[in-house]
What we know:
Layout: H1 12-19, E1 23-26, E2 29-32, E3 43-46, H2 53-66, E4 70-74, H3 77-85, E5 97-100, H4 104-117, E6 130-131, E7 136-138, H5 140-146, E8 161-162, E9 166-167, E10 171-173, E11 180-181
Antiparallel strand pairs: 1-2, 2-4, 3-5, 3-7, 4-5, 6-7, 8-9, 10-11
Helix pairs in contact: 1-2
Amino acid sequence: MNSLLTNTLDDYAGLLEAAGVPFKKEGPWLMSISPIPILPGWDIFLSLKTEFVEDFIAVLSQLQAEFKPVFKIIEGRVAHRQINDGRNSSLNGVPAICLHAPNESAFDKLIIQLESKTKSFRGPVLQNKTRLGSVLYIDPVLAVSLDLDSRAYHAKRKSKFIDRKYLIHSVLRTSEKGNVYK
């Protein structure tokens, strides 16, 4: 971890400033400054553990030069952990990091770039979202309308086994902290 950025980890604004990514603060969110209107649809959600945020912001600064995606990131580590743990009722079910592509072709290219650059990242599973990569998710309605099998990326199928040893009979409970299976 970069020692110069250690003091800014509690506030992601310092990380964005150090990476040269322009942003504005709106409530608990750090958002991109963009003249592009945000239309519903081409949203990409990232579910990261807090220790991967610094690396993700480095990836975001690279993507800004090429794609200029509109982004929304929670303001700091404390709020990020609350979202990941499901402790923040006002932001319940909202991912800590969202990207928005302006159109379908930019969406395709952005997904492919993100999938390759975030393979080593980890994070909690987002409920009610379709998983595309290790930490990449999209809205399930969008996944159905896109015919994912014909694209360069595809949604990973959920296995009926855990560690190839335990057969999942049914799901008793799902939550941000983990699922309980029978």
